[in-house]
Design a protein that fits this description.
It is a single chain. The chain has one domain: 3-Layer(aba) Sandwich (Aminopeptidase). Helix content is about 25%, strand content about 35%. It is built from 4 helices and 9 strands; from the N terminus they run E-H-E-H-E-E-E-H-E-H-E-E-E. The strands form 2 sheets. Strands 1-3-4-5-6-9-7 form a 7-stranded mixed beta sheet, sandwiched between helices. It has a two-stranded antiparallel ribbon with strand order 2-8. The chain is globular. The N and C termini lie far apart (about 30 Å). The model has no long low-confidence stretch (mean pLDDT about 95). The structure holds coenzyme A (COA). Coenzyme A binds next to strand 5, helix 3, strand 6 and helix 4. The site of coenzyme A has 20 residues, from strand 5, helix 3, strand 6 and helix 4.
């Protein structure tokens, strides 16, 4: 049996935020996400737990005409164990209606999009490569783990 529990957080506490930040710092770089990001009023946070340890988080925003998947992040040690799949199963079973317009953003680095298979599996198709949208902030407002002399990552937009 998969020991991972998926839980949506109505109220997230400081310990949970620091666990999410730890994952984000390792995957994306320091200050890519801040404590305030996890406290944003419109952001809905879903976490994956192994006992009391957060091993991944998934965030989305519902607005009037669309739902945006903002971030999906699974701790390095826990990747490729179907936690990303569990997040999207939860999302499609409990949150989204078939008629909703969905949008998701994914990183492309070294010609690879880690979230590509996951998005395709759940009917989210590539719509547009938005290019290096972090260029002005990369290694300035956050320390990107991919930075090599210049910004490396492209943002790819997916939708249903
Ligand atoms: C993308 C990510 C969330 C997937 O989570 P996961 O728990 O590893 O996903 P799953 O185990 O459910 O695998 C789902 C699919 O994604 C593929 N996948 C997982 N990690 C991958 C990676 N690093 N590179 C390429 N494909 C990957 C798997 O092969 C799988 O496809 P399959 O059906 O062929 O097996 C996770 O790798 C991650 O956090 N990556 C870094 C952060 C990131 O890029 N987030 C997305 C943009 S915000």
């Amino acid at each position: 049996m998969n020991p991972i529990r998926i839980e949506e957080k109505k109220l997230i506490n400081d310990i949970e935020i620091s666990q999410c930040l730890h994952i984000s710092n390792n995957l994306f770089g320091i200050h890519y996400h801040s404590k305030n990001y996890f406290l944003e009023k419109n952001l809905i946070i879903v976490i994956a737990l192994n006992e009391d340890e957060i091993v991944g988080f998934f965030t989305y925003i519902i607005s009037k005409n669309k739902t945006v998947i903002d971030c999906i992040a699974v701790d390095n040690k826990w990747q490729r164990k179907k936690i990303g799949t569990l997040f999207l199963e939860y999302f499609f079973k409990n949150i989204v209606n078939p008629k909703d317009k969905l949008v998701a953003y994914a990183w492309k680095v070294d010609n690879q999009i880690p979230a590509n298979n996951l998005n395709l599996k759940f009917g989210l198709k590539k719509v547009e490569n938005l290019g290096k949208i972090w260029k002005e902030e990369c290694n300035k407002s956050f320390q990107c783990i991919q930075f090599k002399n210049t910004c490396q990552c492209e943002c790819v937009l997916y939708s249903n």
